[in-house]
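User: If only I could read backbone structure tokens as easily as an amino acid sequence. Those tokens are not coordinates but codes from a learned vocabulary of shapes. Could you go through the record with me and say what the backbone is doing? Here is the record:
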Amino acid sequence: MTGHILTSLAPAAFGARPTGERLERVRRSPHFRDGSFRNPVPTRRSSPGALGKMYRAQKAASGLRRPGGAVPLVRPTAADFADAPTTGLRASWLGHATVLVEMDGKRVLFDPVWSTRCSPSVAFGPARLHAVPVRFVDLPELDVVVISHDHYDHLDMATVKALVKRDVAFVVPLGIGAHLERWGVGPERITELDWHEAGEVAGLTFTATPARHYCNRGARVLGTVLWASWVVAGPGHRVFHSGDSGYFPGFADIGREHGPFDLTMIQAGAYAQAWPEVHLDPEGAVQAHVELGGRLMLPIHWGTFDLAPHAWEEPAERSMAAARAIGAGLVIPRPGALVEPGLIDGTDIEPWWREIAANPTQWPSAPPAHTEPAQPTSSPSGV
């Protein structure tokens, strides 16, 4: 068995270390100290007693971490994508952190993962709980691919290699370009940014903003690859993608400097008491959305891979309850559904996931929508 596992590992999936001028740029970063990138605030990857917490959480969530039936998918067609969004902004959550955003005439694909497993191996590792709603070959023409960090559930070698064949640019945090170049992406197609740096690609402005997380793809990369959240601004709209992050005061700073946002895509799943500082829970995700100055929040990073000891549907339920309690705008679409934030007020949420939850009766009816909007209330650009 051990021999099979070792031979099934694909070393190329580990990526590559930054070298040469890329490594020198890493070393010049104000966020790189003592041989490693640092978080914006002191951060522990795991909490004291993490193993015990994980054991208790695993036991409590036993049998609940997978859906009880097939996840209902919406499968948009080429004709759907050819029909431009009436408001100039449209998003399709394709599962986990993968979101296709159409804004101001351009298409941006965040954290694309089409593989069956988020793992360096095709033989083991977390497997999908549902298919990608859009086959890779059916994706419309893309302008930019954005990567938040190099964990396997956000940066997928097989998907990157498939994207090499398309005429698409890559925007990534500092150091991740080394992975992409090893997998065949030409350096002229890569825009690599440190926190607070911005670049214009395909007529949109991409700004790498801080996140509270880390990078690690195996022994080949130790501290020289940055993680980030992302602000994307066009002539008429602004969106935010959190990547992975624990809560930190920087969300309010990002909101003041770059907000308000028409849409925030915020990690709301794969949290645990064992690692509270590097993953938001649903309540923290909603709080971050409000501090960012978001009008509509799309919870991401849930429902696709079993990565943490909580019930499959829990991120959706808790996000809905937290948002409704304070009047924050929220949308939780079925994977693949085309969503135009400008046409949604974010208060009427259909809990579709309850139809397939392993234990749907544990959740109370959704509380009535809060009558006062969450703060801040500034109108996002383009709306």
Observations:
- The radius of gyration is 20 Å.
- Residues 181 and 187 are 7 Å apart (CA to CA).
